[in-house]
Give the backbone structure.
Amino acid sequence: MLGNSLISARQFFILVTLFVIGDAVLYVPSLTATSARQDAWISALIGWGEGFLLTSLYAALSLRHPNRTILQYSEDILGKWAGKAVAFLFLSYFFIDASLMLMEIGDFVTTQIMQETPIEIILVLFAAIIVMGTRCGMEPLARVSELLFPYFLLLFFTLIAFIAPQIKVDNLKPVLAHGMAPVFGGNFRYMGYLLESVVLIFLFPLVKQPRHAAKAYIMGILIANFFLTIITTVAVLVLGPNITVLLAYPSYTLAQKISVGNFFERIEVLMAVIWFITLFIKITVCYYATACGIAQTLRLTDYRRLTLPLAMIMVIVALATMPNRPYFDNFVSEIWMPYSLTYGLFLPVLLLVVGGLRKRLGK
Amino acid sequence: MWMILLILLISLVIVAIEAPFLKRNGLKKELFVFGCLLLLGTGLCIAEAVEANIPNPLDWITFVYRPFSDLILSMVE
């Protein structure tokens, strides 16, 4: 069903890292700074603990049900109909997530790089690549992520190294001027992104050694948190909190500001490449989870047949989800976190508790 | 008009790619699900092409989660 493909723990680690960095690398600095201002970096630091706890939860849940995906064991645990309902809720979450990120790509490219191109063209092209990736299966995708990871590291550290001379430490002061409450407000948005890592629970049964996979899951989210904390801190250090909040894509503006000796400049498209790498991995994982999940829930033999028609729906849903930019910003900043919380925390805890109770009562 | 023709052409190409495989292997259920998704996809694309008003799923999500979001944000801000 899952294409019989197996991935190694190392590949899973890289998938988790790139997935969690995903679209967060462009949005997180302004989202956390919205409420936390110059303390955005503390909001991101709190995320380390949350990421650790969340992935421990997912790993514990997966280890109890080896070789079954979350959609399958939700049926085992909750019974046929309630289980199917939960499975469809999860599928809708995966699909909405994939569509939203597709729209983010479209919006980014049409507002920052190619202003004259109609957004539909970008969406269709990107959807085509995602469908190609999904049809190859998870094993090639894991290898691609392994191949792309060094490029990602190179580009990321190039960006940080060349923007470093413009850092102004005064931008971080005063620390905690308004107490901890705004910091948690920033963390509220940040956590919405961490909760999306629940999608990866779907890939967990594919990893060869479950014990190592659990470790890779936790390490992956911690490393991703490391990158996100760096980019948030650097954005606030260089641009200052007031400008970071106003910008749609602060990390991209950061790259635009790079200028070494009036010679090495205008390398902002490098930042876009970082984003294309991480976002490609993230959307493809979400899309794979959707297509494969539909096939599993409806007991079909091959998910590949569903990928092309599903992509048509995805492009239209993506277009429908962003009538305008303020609507989208408002959604991501206020609604996304509680929405993700349902799937990232509430449902896994429910499955864990009910599964534990059933096991105990069954004995 | 051209857009609608183009969309129908794309749908036909998708059928040409997938249907022979499904038919050959006698996968009835797959063919049914595939057909439903394709019909929905084509319908949505044509609706988009004639600029019909497509409902936004985020509106429904916002409707459900707004009270919860307000509650949390009122605590931290």
